[in-house]
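Continuing from the previous page of notes. For each protein in this section, the sequence appears first, followed by its structure tokens. Read the first protein now.
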Amino acid sequence: MFLDSYSIARSDIIGRAWIAVHLTGFMVIGERGGWQQKSTMLRDPGNGPFS
């Protein structure tokens, strides 16, 4: 019982950290390249980091 609740709490923390890291990464991309360039990359994935 204790191990189950501990592993659930741990996966929740990891999930929140993963989300925070990715949101921060997108914000850095937006500030570094400008919001216009970011929206262009999102519309055309071939030119972006997801190709």
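Done with the first. The second protein uses the same format. Note its length before scrolling.
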Amino acid sequence: FPSSCAEVLAQEGEVHVALCNGQGGTPADQPRREWHNSWQIVAVAAGAGFILSDVHPFKAEAVDGYKCTGYRSQDKSFCVEGALNHVFTRSTAPLCLTPMSCETQLGSQKVSFQVPQVLVDKINRGFLEVNSSHPVRTIKEKLSAGLSQAFPLQNISSCLPLLHQGHLDGVCHSSIFWITLSPGEALSTEKISQGLANPVLFSHLGQDTEENVPEGCPIPKQFYLRPSLLPHAQAITKKRAFSPGTLQVLSGPVFRKCRITPHSMPVFHEMLIVLAVRRGTENSCIQMLVGNIKTTLNSLHQGVKPSISLQEATSVGTELNDFAAFERQLGEIQHFLCVGTDSDPSGSCVGVIRTAPDEFQSRELVVVSASLNLDLLAML
């Protein structure tokens, strides 16, 4: 049926499919039937290039001339109570993305590389730039403003390197976007470790640009796009580059190979909050941080406030969303910051809290950090 519609439907036309309650196999069905006992109408329509644009109750009396034919043409009418009308439209054609080159500086060397195809339209969106009005920037600025009322605060996000060299301990290699530098750009470890990155420049390449390395040349898995801002924070604390009691706020896009789900995306904007406190006061500091975050997020919602909770990492089972599971690979976690819903009161992870007692190699100080997924917070 959808394929037949695709042959005759106008470009801006709609296909309306009315089904009994439960037959569609979509979240709109209440209750939902088992997969094999429904039409799975979204998947069927997708095969003909249609997407589900709207679902609303089917009102038989409002359809002029409607007559129920009966179940399998028997003298038994369909039950139209709770029936739904599914509206399908043509999906937009996929974008034809031009290959993109990125030039950045590591230490005293400029390097360039071809951006992975899946990231071409996502790596340079500028959502956190000063002139941006995107919700992730709004969330970041509101959180920073709220935290600055309780702590001295310093933003240090402008010079964070986009690339890393080597391997990230504990992280699965298949979760990383590995990068091959453009020919002639190979660097020595000594030069790379000297400094931080300068502003990044992007440029589009010709359509016929080949991304593949010539046959017979192994790909040296030495460089990768940053999957987290945590290593940058650790480097800063090891250098003792900030004062105890001052909040350091790092933010920027991070890149992780993952399944795309409502709570997992290959690029998201991380906000990392780092604070050195006196040993023994870390728990009260965490409560103050989380309380401040809750207050700020609640102030952004006029209606129903999000249910935000702090959960002990030891009490959370193995059923973690991909964001939380990756964070666990980066290092030990003390708490998960979760947002609950009516259907899932325990909540979905939107942030993690860590303490690093030995980060300073000091008997007096402990490092507390909070990593927040700004994209997930913006979708609350």
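What the second structure shows: The chain has eight helices and 16 strands. Residues 187-198, 207-219 have pLDDT under 50 and may be disordered. We return to this in next week's lecture.
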